[in-house]
Amino acid sequence: MKITKILAREIYDSRGWPTVQCEIILNNQFSVKSSVPSGISKGPYEAIELRDGGKRLSGQGVLKAIENIELFLAPQFLSKEPNGLEMDMKILAADSTPDKSKLGANATLALSMALYKAQAFSENVELYELIAWVFGSETVSLPFPMFNLINGGLHSNNNLIIQEFMIVPIGLSNFRASMEVAVNVYHELQNILKKMNRNFAIGDEGGIACGIEDDLEALELLQKAIDTVVKNSGSKCVIALDISAERLYNASKKIYNWGGDKLSSEELMYVYLNLLEKYPIYSLEDPFASNDLESWAKLNKIADGKIQIVGDDIFATNMARIVKGLEQKAANATIVKPNQIGTITETLQTIKMCKEVGVNTIVSHRSGETEDNFIADLAVGASAGQIKAGGCARGERIAKYNRLLTIEDKLALHLLNT
Ligand code: PGA
Ligand code: ZN
User: Fold this and answer.
1) Which residues pair with 6 in a beta bridge?
2) Pocket test for ligand 1, best of 166, 315, 367 (most atoms within 8 A of CB)
3) Is residue 235's pLDDT more than 90?
4) N or C end of the chain, less CB within 10 A?
């Protein structure tokens, strides 16, 4: 099939801010669409998201990014067979900056995702199959999901310092069973809050966002909900936290603002070690700011491979930054967010390198999302190992989990037929 048209349009994300959608029309007949997410607790090393500035939509418009797709990128792909890998190379050549600041990572990624989808469609394969093929892998696997059941930090308007309180069901034989446990914990958490006469609501990432007093209460309630569900089902759940410490750090004073307390890196380390002792925490994301590398290395040494120390803002899905971090032994895992780097091919290269050097990878959504479920196929096709796509509510979060449920069924059927 040939590409007959490439359209780009401004649509809206789950927070009501504009974002880029790209539509590729094949053979004048079929079409695929992709849309890019947008983070709010962004690190300083992420690829540039192009916003229009000015008064319209508080400066958040993406009309320039759209123009960049339609005028500068699309023409070279018209009348060609879609090919994600080859065409990403052309996108990279057209932008030619290390941070996509010429065309905007929201422009390059929207097109890159749409090209991969168009290729899968025209070759009549599933997107995860195409990704596995490009990745050079003959097998695929479902990721372990991390469900974000309580939203704090910049993802809500509450007192919680820690940004994401996630649960990871373990010891289960499939994704569907994990989802079931997570949904049960999510509803149990709501039951507990109702019994406590707390008013609550859902935050940006589909977890509880108010009605909880502080971080310690959040952990206590989460543990209580887990215990109730586990008791009734025989399953097990561990906890993963995203501190997102970048926003708490005062680099000139070298202190962290921890809910009003001014903590040194040492003192913050002590907070974490206490939490690790009290709760079944298996993963800690962005525990320190990206230029407080020494503290990362200290914690990673203490963790000794038993706790997952995850770099998000510090690595920004960027191979060079991950290599630098590994030299310092800063972490043993990385978040993978396609819009931090700007193309799917670069995202795949990053995952591949991490696998080669034994760094865990967690494919991740952003707090501002759309119904696009590309990351589910990405996590499966690249056998990334883990995914975080939010809590157990909100359509744009559930879209990713629902796609994983569908993929799991397809893979089971495939196994049956072979
Ligand atoms: P963001 O945060 O999508 O708002 O940047 C998510 C995260 O820090 O993992
Ligand atoms: Zn993070």
Assistant:
1) 24
2) 367
3) no
4) C
Q: If you ran DSSP here, which 8-state letter would residue 70 be given?
A: I
Indicate which residue of 49, 129, 205, 396 is catalytic. 205
- Domain topology for 3-124: Enolase-like; domain 1 (3.30.390)
**Ligand 1: distance of its center to the CA of 298 in Å?**
24
Is the pLDDT at 250 greater than 80? The verdict is yes
Cβ of 242 below 6 Å from ligand 1: yes
* Residues near ligand 2 ion, CB 5 Å cutoff: 242, 285, 312
Torsional sign, CA 46, 50, 54, 59: negative
pLDDT tens by residue, 218-233: 999 999 999 999 987 8
Is 418's pLDDT higher than 80? Answer: no
Active-site residue 337, yes or no?
yes
pLDDT digits (tens, 9 = 90+) for 63-78: 999 999 999 999 999 9
Report the run of H or E that residue 130 belongs to, with start and end: helix 127-135
3 CA from centroid of ligand 2 (Å) = 36
Please state which of the four CATH numbers 3.90.1150.10, 3.20.20.120, 3.90.950.10, 3.90.1300.10 is assigned to the domain occupying 144-416: 3.20.20.120
Give the residue extent of every domain in the chain.
3-124, 144-416
